[in-house]
Protein 1
Amino acid sequence: MPEEMELETFFAAARADPPAPSQALLARIADEGRALQPRGRPLVAPVPPRGKGTFRSVLDSIGGWPVLGGLMTAGCAGLWLGLSDAGGLGGYVYAGGSEGWLYGPADLVALAVTEDGV
């Protein structure tokens, strides 16, 4: 029990006189912090906007180049499916029976190129 009382007196003395950093240390920390701050960029006069053309206006209204690429891909796929006659979409890929693939890649090209199909 006396050891605890002795230890408590040391803790009370430490609480009474807390260590404080020196002013020189605080000034060095503040100087380092200011040195690490990003520098401001010089102000530049804004470029006046040019007039948009018709194509640029239409392209911006639909969502830009990625959307136009998707529209072109979907349009080409729809045109290909519409012009070639394979008996529906299932006829392009797989036959329902046990014989396996109905059309291979070469047959699909032949379907797309020829008038009468295979």
Protein 2
Amino acid sequence: MDEIWGVLAAVLSSAIGGTSIGATRFLVGAIDPLAIGAFRFGIGVLLLLPLALLQRGSWPPRRDWLGTTGLGLLFFAAFPILFNASLISTTAARGALALSTLPLLTMLVGAALGAEPLTARKATGVLVTILGVSMALLSGLATAPPGAWRGDLLMVAAALCMALYSIWSKPFIRRSGPIPFTTLAMAAGAMVLIAASLLRGSFAPVAEFGAPQWFGATYLGAFGAALTFYLWAFALERTTPTRVAISVTVNPIAASLVGAVLLGEPLSWNLIAGIVTVFAGIWIATTQPQRVPVTAADTR
């Protein structure tokens, strides 16, 4: 049952992450991506910290502080910097497809490090979900700016950061729980992003913020950071890194559906086909084939 809850939490985490793309796209016209990350994770830490402090017995032990901080810098600092930098050179559709390599990278790295076995069923499910994302983003993949491959490589590097975080963080989460671990890791990344934003003067436009900008920043912090990455850690505590990572393919699907509902963007046939294919791939990768019981008569 824990496996099922873990997969469902991961899918919900990625779906919320997809809706956060809309808030990010709205805020990028007001402040630079570095400051957006600082707001997102800074607010996320402020919301998670009281919950983490209530779980005193589960706070990461001192021997885990260095590892937790390193994982926080990898996921909550390096990842958003690479992610935002990639979208300068490539399109959103190509970036989403490059990010969908996350489950493949997680599966291969996890097998290489001995974190989880590589199975044919899991590999098939991962490849099917990547195919589904490709189908859903078919129209956006046709065009690409000059040098888009640089942005694609940066997004793959961001996916690798996320894969390593998913694999290496599992034992830390088991020792301290998802909320305390996520709070400490996110705080490490947020401090780096806040310091870099202050040095660059990225917070200057905040003086011109109105209610919509503050709502967007608060949404990113509450849902795009605190809830999204708590659910991600909750999932990692209960199932394998690859089964968690495969849910990231829901992210561009959710973003497309939000665009259709809120922005009036048409629901094309390839988006519908992509949605069905992605969920078929997730089902293949996260379920086990039924075994036929062997009876005494079969052994005669």
Protein 3
Amino acid sequence: MAAIEGVTLQVPDPKAADVFYANAFELGPRVAVCASDEPTTGFRGFTMSLVVSQPSTVDSLIGTALEAGATTLKPAKKGFWGYGGVVQAPDGTIWKVATSTKKDIGPFTRQVDDIVLLLGVANVKASKQFYVDHGLAVAKSFGSKYVEFEAPASAVKLALYGRRAAAKDAGVSPEGSGSHRIVIGSDAASFTDPDGFAWEAARVQDRL
């Protein structure tokens, strides 16, 4: 089965981005950065999600992200699905931090249980089939609305959403053009998906 080993965010200032992510989220090798000045405007077609165990963890991670220079797109609050909020890093990457619980269930922790790369795609069914053909196994599927793929422990999970739905969930306009500014590292062969997202057959550490 193909699996995402990590993602590399393409940023204008890698040193500044490294400092931001170390202070904001402490995600280790699953999220790396590299220099890029490729033009991009508006929504880049993806968001990164941090899934955690309880609201206090959401508040802590969002708090340190804001202290490190992020801006708020959606303040953390309770919803039908749980509790969470959305911020945008100084490099432009959109981060959602969320939990399925509405009350703390244990001692305070900053542990991130899952990292999810959500791609906003033009055709969910077509992209789902593309990724199945490239070795990914479906974990959850809701027709043409949403797809989540299986992932080994400690890997980055992949999910698909319609582009407009993904942008609405992030609190931004769906309009955008230019580079996605992300490279997905996996144990599969290198390829580019129907929406232009690039995959590389190399570990994140090897691309730094």
